[in-house]
Amino acid sequence: MTITIYHNPKCGTSRNTLEMIRKSGVEPEIVEYLKTPPSRDVLAELIRRMGIPVRDVLRQKGTPYDELGLGEDKWSDDDLLDHMMAHPILINRPIVVSDNGVRLCRPSERVLDLLPQDIGTFTKEDGEVVTSTKSAD
Fold first, then answer.
1. 115 near 98, Cβ under 8 Å?
2. Which pLDDT band holds residue 78 (cuts at 50, 70, 90)?
3. Which CATH number characterizes residue 73's domain?
4. Is 11 known to be catalytic?
């Protein structure tokens, strides 16, 4: 299985998600999106595949969200994508792409359904314990 994570190593949620992927036995392709942002077309396709509104991928904390007035209703999806291209920090993370789908993994345990196998028990950086058990079909 191939897994790609759009990752920010300074983000605890992103680090936890990466470690859960590794615990499943997969070494993912890691895209540090602040250094190598996805193209506009790739980002739009990721959002389409996640099946969520463009606005749901906008990060507010620690970004120019407020100073740009991105909470206002006047912005179209295209406008919001343009802002994310100009300021990649506005792209929420981590976004994980696997053979099982594409998902914004906030909280980090949202990655579990995308993994090829159970990871058993995982302790997140904050001490929270996550248990992964896939049911037999």
1. yes
2. very high
3. 3.40.30.10
4. yes
